[in-house]
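Q: I'm building a small set of examples for a reading group on sequence design. Run inverse folding on the following structure and report the sequence directly after it, with nothing in between.
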């Protein structure tokens, strides 16, 4: 085996061993695609996930189009799916589970069972000339998706061809990548099913809200941790677990009566107490954490309704009794709210993502606010409700707010929906 190939295999081994520590599927897919592109020096690539009869564009990268387009929602493949069709390259590979390497898509044998679908090339004016398409399948050879690498570049930056060695190396790589995906998907699906259980109780709000809060919290953490120069190791650990933990922030709502969760009007004091109880109810589910994910989930659940100025809830409370935590009660013996940095950074971040999503989205008791008004309220609450540094990080990622909203839309309203159609004033939230 050539020295170069041994070096590349060692590099593959180093990359795939790092997959073991990534539980979050989007983070993992990003890492799989980025590393595959580095290994082959490709300009672009896509990972499709197989969902029933559809291939979903789960993650795409294109250095050329990124330079041309500011808004990622304008990319031709944004939020798109393909039917699993044997006549397309990705469909063929998903069904046949074999690698296809094509160095010139314009000269595919017309008698071949597959052809290159040029629709996206035409929409974006980006020509996919050389494409390597690899199956991502479990150890049991069940297809999870497809990895597609597009347009390898030579050292001179010009388009070149895939080699046989590229195919061998990537085949090896894709096998390990798929194993990591299977593990991550198993874990994510356990979390998502918990969110689904709560959503069955609260069908119009919880699922999409949980997904948006998770995506936004992760983006805010990324920006905040860059600014704070948090170590790479700690950042990776937190970025890995926070999306799943944030999805679970309202899991305690399963204990809130449905009549309260779906009331299309403001809650009275008794209902408000029942609603606020979702924090302690959820935290008790994680009161005895035995994994790092449990630990961060507990922090998120417990702290996401605390306020920077100490006026939030549930405050310093004993999870078992609901009474003030020993040694932390106020002078009058009452529960005291956590404030400032007493609130975990994960709670402070999810609080910002949660309130922004509540303001900018529809609720049973209100319509969505305009984004400009929602942003204005968030800025006004900096230093009051929210940690100013976290608000700064949130404003630093506002360009992705629409992308998140488009990716996880609320379900459509039914004709007889009890939702309000008037916009309340900010004080009515
Ligand atoms: Fe909540
Ligand atoms: Fe929430």
């Amino acid at each position: 085996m050539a020295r170069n190939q041994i070096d590349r295999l060692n590099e593959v081994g180093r990359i795939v061993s790092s997959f073991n520590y990534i539980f979050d599927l989007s983070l993992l897919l990003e890492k799989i695609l980025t590393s595959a592109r580095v290994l082959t020096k490709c300009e672009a690539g896509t990972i499709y996930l197989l969902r029933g009869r559809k291939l979903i564009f789960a993650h795409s990268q294109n250095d050329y189009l990124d330079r041309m387009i500011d808004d990622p929602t304008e990319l031709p493949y944004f939020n798109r799916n393909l039917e699993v069709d044997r006549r397309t390259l990705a469909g063929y590979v998903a069904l046949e589970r074999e690698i296809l390497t094509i160095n010139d898509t314009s000269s595919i044998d017309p008698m071949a069972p597959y052809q290159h679908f040029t629709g996206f090339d035409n929409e974006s004016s980006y020509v996919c000339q050389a494409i390597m398409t690899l199956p991502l399948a479990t150890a049991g050879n069940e297809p999870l998706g497809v990895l597609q690498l597009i347009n390898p570049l030579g050292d001179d930056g010009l388009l070149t061809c895939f080699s046989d060695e590229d195919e061998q190396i990537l085949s090896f790589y894709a096998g390990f990548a798929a194993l990591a995906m299977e593990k991550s998907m198993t874990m994510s699906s356990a979390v998502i099913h918990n969110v689904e259980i709560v959503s069955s109780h609260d069908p119009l709000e919880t699922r999409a809200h949980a997904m948006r809060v998770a995506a936004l919290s992760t983006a805010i953490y990324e920006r905040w941790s860059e600014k704070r120069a948090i170590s790479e190791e700690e950042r990776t650990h937190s970025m890995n677990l926070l999306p799943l933990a944030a999805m679970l922030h309202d899991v305690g709502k399963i204990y809130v009566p449905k009549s309260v969760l779906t009331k299309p009007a403001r809650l009275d004091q008794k209902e408000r107490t029942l609603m606020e109880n979702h924090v302690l109810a959820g935290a008790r589910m994680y009161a005895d954490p035995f994994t790092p994910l449990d630990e961060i989930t507990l922090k998120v659940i417990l702290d996401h309704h605390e306020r920077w100025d100490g006026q939030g809830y549930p405050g310093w409370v004993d999870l078992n009794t609901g009474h003030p935590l020993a040694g932390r009660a106020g002078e009058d013996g009452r529960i005291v709210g956590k404030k400032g940095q007493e609130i975990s950074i994960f709670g402070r971040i999810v609080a910002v993502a949660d309130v922004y999503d509540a303001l900018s989205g529809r609720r049973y008791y209100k319509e969505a606010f305009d984004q400009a008004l929602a942003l204005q309220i968030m800025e006004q609450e900096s230093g009051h409700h929210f940690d100013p540094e976290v608000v700064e990080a949130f404003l630093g990622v506002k360009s992705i707010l629409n992308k998140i909203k488009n990716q996880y839309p609320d379900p459509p309203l039914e004709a007889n929906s009890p939702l309000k159609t008037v916009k309340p004033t900010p004080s009515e939230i």
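Residues 419-429 have pLDDT under 50 and may be disordered.
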